Amino acid sequence: MEFTLNQIAAILQGKVEGDGDQIVNRLDKIQDGQPGGISFLANEKYEQFIYETGSTAVIVSDKFKPSKPISCSLIRVKNAYTGFTQLLEAYAQLTKTSKVGIEQPSYFDTSSTQGDGAYRAAFSYVGKNCTIGKEVKIYPHVSIGDNVKIGDHTIIHAGVKICNSTIIGSYCEIHPGAVIGSDGFGFAPQEDGSYKTIPQIGNVIIEDHVSIGANTTIDCATMGSTLIKKGAKIDNLVQIAHNVVVGEHTVIASQTGISGSSEIGNHCVIAGQAGIVGHIKIADRTTIGAKTGISRNVTTPGKTLFGLIAFDIKDFLKSYSIFKNLPQLQDRIKELEKKQ
Amino acid sequence: MEFTLNQIAAILQGKVEGDGDQIVNRLDKIQDGQPGGISFLANEKYEQFIYETGSTAVIVSDKFKPSKPISCSLIRVKNAYTGFTQLLEAYAQLTKTSKVGIEQPSYFDTSSTQGDGAYRAAFSYVGKNCTIGKEVKIYPHVSIGDNVKIGDHTIIHAGVKICNSTIIGSYCEIHPGAVIGSDGFGFAPQEDGSYKTIPQIGNVIIEDHVSIGANTTIDCATMGSTLIKKGAKIDNLVQIAHNVVVGEHTVIASQTGISGSSEIGNHCVIAGQAGIVGHIKIADRTTIGAKTGISRNVTTPGKTLFGLIAFDIKDFLKSYSIFKNLPQLQDRIKELEKKQ
Amino acid sequence: MEFTLNQIAAILQGKVEGDGDQIVNRLDKIQDGQPGGISFLANEKYEQFIYETGSTAVIVSDKFKPSKPISCSLIRVKNAYTGFTQLLEAYAQLTKTSKVGIEQPSYFDTSSTQGDGAYRAAFSYVGKNCTIGKEVKIYPHVSIGDNVKIGDHTIIHAGVKICNSTIIGSYCEIHPGAVIGSDGFGFAPQEDGSYKTIPQIGNVIIEDHVSIGANTTIDCATMGSTLIKKGAKIDNLVQIAHNVVVGEHTVIASQTGISGSSEIGNHCVIAGQAGIVGHIKIADRTTIGAKTGISRNVTTPGKTLFGLIAFDIKDFLKSYSIFKNLPQLQDRIKELEKKQ
């Protein structure tokens, strides 16, 4: 997509300094700017770059006074950072939601329905009795099973697999390769040491405004529902086991795993590669550090936990700093023993 | 699928108390029961819920005597839990194996064969010289390379990729997005500091009754075979490297990684996010804790190991409880030093 | 593919001892050799196997003198190991690059171009304005977005998803299910405790001779590019976040995660399940142990680091060996306290 500087200034209610007919088709970092790109300068620390940038234009504040000659054009706005994020959002919106129509071949069972503004890519698959809302975008190689419901304005990226009976809200985004509703990992040990599969007949419910990362897996419930509450943001390669509940506006970073039937509160922040055992509850506003293992209930809201078997992060760091010096500590004990 | 209570009672050899023509189409937890669902009551602790449940019917024991009025219908059977699991299995069976036939467009090389009772979804792909057994279900976007063999009654879920020369047994289930037979991670360092790819020409053999989780990856052997023995159950997002052997009826939880050429014994249980280095052997019936790292052979069967560099779990927990109190321990040493 | 021993001897510039018209169609380990296979003997330790192997033929050195009768044929070459790897490479090359042509149905936007020697499998998808080089192989269920560039001789395996504006070099190999260019995990906290999606408008650049493992995820940059430099080798299920830079000829093992904007130097080796926080730099030739967490800049090249919060591996191992004996250490302190 190409825009003239005049068009962009109109969108941002700003003023062009330079040739308003110049065309840009890309947003650049100011330090990496190249012709055809537009950048912004909001932080004084980056001022030097505006004198060197190759960008065609830079968005700056009303009040910006250059201290040296500038070779690029300027678009002056009230707040350069806000202006730029407006542009970012407009750009992302255009890119993601501009797709409309049904590409062929695609598979859509006649018992299913999809609302207006649909995009269904070639090689997308929708099974029986599905109800898909308005403005839903379904990318290539998406597989949607039977009896699935998807709300309005949700984007399902390439290669996502959504299993039978999953319910997904509105304004969600499911990133490429994610698997929603695969069987929970449930096996009953038999007397001969083998395992029998426990049928997994529940589903997954994902509420509105949820983001699910690339190649993340969310298992269906054994019975009932695995539940991802509204506004939760889940990164790539995360494992959510059967019957887990993830609270509202909780953020879970990459490669974290949550075991079966655990309930994570609202507004929690879980860093990367953390692990949470099954059948526990984590209070609201808990922060869990990277690589941290949580092995029991967290009942007090607002704590920050860290460690292989987690405890309070400040206490952990004190213990860990002594751990690093254990050889010296041991030497001091030897010394004491000698002097007895 | 819809059933009357009379039909269900006939399946379970039980008796209906209430209107046997009522229809149910769903299995519910008793505490979450809604009209149209059927639940069970096996554990006395849950008795209160039978007086409140919205379920249309509840499966109870012959001997159950309500202490209050009940508004739902009952199906009385010998053992309520057994009855319910029978129902669960029948339900899961119906859902998973009811698919039959070939949807179009699908790709099936003319040199390959598939037995009776086949389901091949639209957009499934089967390469050259494959031999696929009876009652095998192949879901959408499954990619099967050349020279692959698959036994009877195996289910290959959506988006699974099975690379050339893989052999999969009977009654296996491969969950969505799993990759079977990708190249092992083998690179020979060159004098200039670059790496040369070591060709990976082996395959993967998966024996009968194996379950492979969603988005799990199993690499082919450099030469020979990566081997998953019968009855092994592998969860989501697990990494099995080239030439690994996973023993019979061994269970591996999510996000665990097993490095090249290691051999895991039979009846082992490996918790989530564990890691096992390459070229070692783990004895039968070993239990490995969550987030545990195994860096050397485990020769005695039946041990339970834990820790970043694992040792006996009881010893680990003793050390870790002192680790938590290292600041106090350090204070005691300071105290002793002062008093000298 | 079948070859006579005479054909193989010709390729390797060696001599056959035995029937040169015998046919082999497989490379076997000498200890597992079966008729129809060819093996090699390079290491004296394996000599015993040549007297027992079922292989049709074994590649041996010019100088090899059997100490017992041998039932298989021999191909004598200067260096048996080199000869065998030549054969391995030829075999792998044939298997992987023999695919040519366009299978149907496949989707290829008319605005995109692909060079000579193309393979595009059934159900492959290529969006708008893509430029794809010569001898590029695109397997089933590969999804390529808009404005993607791919160099010559690159192999894109089954089910790979390549998002808009990704640039991939020549001689790369992207293994099944990998996701390249998914949105970075960026959300701005709002006053009401919810999160707003930060548009991710950058891309991913992958230079020449890079290998990306199965189901690995590489996020696009928020702005600018996530960059994987030439010769880097990345294993399965690795997470590379937005704006990360991975240096030349750096090797990253399975299930490692690298957080946003971190820069990994050249010739680094990162073991499995390691984690690196965001916004740090790792010097060239750093070795990072398995399960290790890196929480700050590594400025000195060539170090080896280990631990949950990493430090020098030798120091870590000293501390850890004392950690294992903390109960005894505590007893010694008690003993000292008693004796005061």
From TrEMBL, chains A, B, C:
Keywords recorded for this protein, A-Z: Acyltransferase, Lipid A biosynthesis, Lipid biosynthesis, Lipid metabolism, Repeat, Transferase
Protein name as catalogued: UDP-3-O-acylglucosamine N-acyltransferase
Enzyme class: transferase
NCBIfam families: lipid_A_lpxD (TIGR01853), PRK00892.1 (NF002060)
The keyword Transcription regulation belongs to this UniProt entry's keyword annotation: no
Pathway: Bacterial outer membrane biogenesis; LPS lipid A biosynthesis
EC number: 2.3.1.191
Domain of life: Bacteria
Active site: H242
Domain UDP-3-O-[3-hydroxymyristoyl] glucosamine N-acyltransferase non-repeat region positions: 22-89
Protein purpose: Catalyzes the N-acylation of UDP-3-O-acylglucosamine using 3-hydroxyacyl-ACP as the acyl donor. Is involved in the biosynthesis of lipid A, a phosphorylated glycolipid that anchors the lipopolysaccharide to the outer membrane of the cell.
GO molecular function: UDP-3-O-[(3R)-3-hydroxyacyl]-glucosamine N-acyltransferase activity
Family named by the database record: Belongs to the transferase hexapeptide repeat family. LpxD subfamily.
Catalytic activity: a UDP-3-O-[(3R)-3-hydroxyacyl]-alpha-D-glucosamine + a (3R)-hydroxyacyl-[ACP] = a UDP-2-N,3-O-bis[(3R)-3-hydroxyacyl]-alpha-D-glucosamine + holo-[ACP] + H(+)
PANTHER family referenced in this protein's UniProt entry, alphabetically: UDP-3-O-ACYLGLUCOSAMINE N-ACYLTRANSFERASE (PTHR43378), UDP-3-O-ACYLGLUCOSAMINE N-ACYLTRANSFERASE 1, MITOCHONDRIAL-RELATED (PTHR43378:SF2)
Family annotation (InterPro entries): Hexapep (IPR001451), Hexapep_transf_CS (IPR018357), LpxD (IPR007691), Trimer_LpxA-like_sf (IPR011004), UDP_GlcNAc_AcTrfase_non-rep (IPR020573)
Record note on quaternary structure: Homotrimer.
Pfam family, one: LpxD
